[in-house]
């Protein structure tokens, strides 16, 4: 009996997960997520500019801030053309990472910042690639245009990791 209840619960959880994964974000959802991602990278890039021990990590922070500022400007234009309200909010995970980074100094800060940027940009590239291939139109064109910048950031982070 207990096993049957457990298996039923597991099957229900898997069904919910599968149906959630099958639901694609709308183009509007993607644009909002892109703006939040840019806000996150700007926030964390500025922090690295100020707190990183390595001049190379500080320079990477500056690059992130500059590139994602431009990306945000493009995303805002796209959002407004779609009737989507621009946002200045970062991703929750980036806010959590900022808190973590605030407790670190020196090489420990640099290692954690680079580790996070590698993981984050790998996820971003997957999301942007999926959007670029999933649809046609302005949002897909925006995703395709952004991918080379995300790849550049990942390449820098991987070189910094050594």
Question: How would you sum up this structure, described in words?
Answer:
The chain has a single domain (25-161), classed as Ferritin, core subunit, four-helix bundle (Ferritin). It has 6 helices and no strands. The protein has helices at 2-22, 27-51, 55-81, 92-102, 106-134, 138-161. The longest helix is centred in the C-terminal third of the chain and has 29 residues, at 106-134. Residues 2-24 have low confidence and may be disordered.
Could you list some keywords that capture this structure?
85% helix, 162 residues, disordered N terminus, Ferritin, mainly alpha, 6 helices, globular
CATH top level class name = Mainly Alpha
What is the name of the CATH topology? Ferritin
Structural class: mainly alpha
Using the CA coordinates, give the radius of gyration: 18 Å
Low-confidence stretches: 2-24
- What is the assigned CATH homologous superfamily? Ferritin, core subunit, four-helix bundle
The residue-averaged pLDDT reads: 88
Brief account:
With 162 residues, the protein is an all-alpha fold. It has helices spanning 2-22, 27-51, 55-81, 92-102, 106-134, 138-161. The chain is globular.
Please render the helix and strand layout as text.
Elements: H1 2-22, H2 27-51, H3 55-81, H4 92-102, H5 106-134, H6 138-161
């Amino acid at each position: 009996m207990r096993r049957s209840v457990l298996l039923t619960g597991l099957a229900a959880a898997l069904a919910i997960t599968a149906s959630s994964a099958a639901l694609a974000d709308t183009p509007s959802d993607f644009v909002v997520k892109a703006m939040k991602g840019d806000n996150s990278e700007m926030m964390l890039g500025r922090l690295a500019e100020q707190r990183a021990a390595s001049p190379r990590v500080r320079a990477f922070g500056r690059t992130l801030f500059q590139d994602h500022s431009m990306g945000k400007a493009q995303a805002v234009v796209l959002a407004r053309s779609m009737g989507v309200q621009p946002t200045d909010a970062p991703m929750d995970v980036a806010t959590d990472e900022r808190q973590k980074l605030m407790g670190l100094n020196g090489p420990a800060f640099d290692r954690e910042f680079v580790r996070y940027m590698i993981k984050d940009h790998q996820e971003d590239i997957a999301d942007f690639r999926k959007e670029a291939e999933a649809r046609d139109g302005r949002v897909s064109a925006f995703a395709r245009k952004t991918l080379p910048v995300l790849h550049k950031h990942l390449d820098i982070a991987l070189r910094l990791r050594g």
